[in-house]
Amino acid sequence: MIEWLRHLASDDFGKTIITVSGTLVAVALGAFLGTFKDVWIESGKRKRLAWLTAVRLTVILDKYVDNCLANVQDTGEYDHENVRHTKVPQPELEYPADLGWTSLHRQLMYAAFRLKVEHDSVESGLDFIGVEIAFPPDYEEYYEEKSVMFSQQGLVALELIRSLKDHYDVPTADRKAYDPRDTLNRKLDERRKLDEERAV
Predict the structure, then answer these.
(1) DSSP letter string over 113-157?
(2) Three-state DSSP class for 46?
(3) Rounded to whole angstroms, how far apart are CA atoms 179 and 161?
(4) Distance between CA 151 and CA 185 in Å, rounded?
(5) Mean pLDDT of the 25-47 span
(6) CA-to-CA separations, 175 to 70, 92, 99, 190, in angstroms, rounded
(7) Cα–Cα separations (whole angstroms), residue 192 to 60, 77, 130, 175, 188
(8) Section 68-79 average pLDDT
(9) What is the pTM of this model?
(10) pLDDT tens sequence across 138-162
(11) Is the dihedral angle over the CA atoms 31, 32, 37, 38 positive or is it negative?
């Protein structure tokens, strides 16, 4: 091989071929390295955006879980006319318009959208129950359904938080002292037992 290259380089034509070939290889290598660098930088940016999006979403969901828990525990209070009123506002779930959704894993993005759809459905359902089914002074049906619905929502949100943490290693709320799952699951268990008793 080396002998062949020496023979080729011995005349002007061979030198031209080697020069042109070397130039083409250098240009191709430069283009490849440039493309690789761009892809590598873009990949890094995308990973950082995904992590930041996951962090922002986790903060929103942590607050939502806390608000769901407060609603589950809210048994209301009575005014001077002995009419029952809620002590805490219903949870809100709004996502910022600039959240980098497309950077997230598709299943996690879908789960977040699905949670929002279910939240809106819970709001509509509770509005209907509060106006059409539950009656003063106790509004018992409203409080029963509210605790069940927000227990379910809180558990779904906690599962999504866990998935975001597993997938992106994002920080989450410190819940070592108290796990809301205990209260949320207990409330659903109480409802199941009540439904079984009513069915008898």
Answers:
(1) HHHHHHHHHHHHHHHHIIIII--TTT-HHHHHHHHHHHHHHHHHH
(2) helix
(3) 13
(4) 7
(5) 61
(6) 15, 21, 25, 23
(7) 30, 25, 22, 26, 6
(8) 95
(9) 0.78
(10) 999 999 999 999 999 999 999 999 9
(11) positive
Dig out the tokens for 108 from the structure.
């996690």
- pLDDT at residue 35 tops 80: no
Residue 154 and residue 65 in contact, taking contact as beta carbons nearer than 8 Å: yes
Q: Three-state DSSP class for 77?
A: strand
Is a pLDDT exceeding 90 seen at residue 7?
A: no
Strand partners, 77: 85
Token pair recorded at residue 38? 């761009």
**Which two three-digit tokens encode residue 63?**
């607050």
Hey, is 85 helix, strand or coil?
A: strand
Token pair for 48: 């950082």
Query: Is the peptide bond prior to 137 cis by the omega test (within 30 degrees of 0)?
Result: yes
Answer for the pair 79, 56: CB distance below 8 angstroms, yes or no: no
What's the confidence (pLDDT) of residue 40? 46
Q: What amino acid is encoded at 134 in this protein?
A: A
Closest by alpha carbon to 57, among 150, 136, 148, 171?
Answer: 171
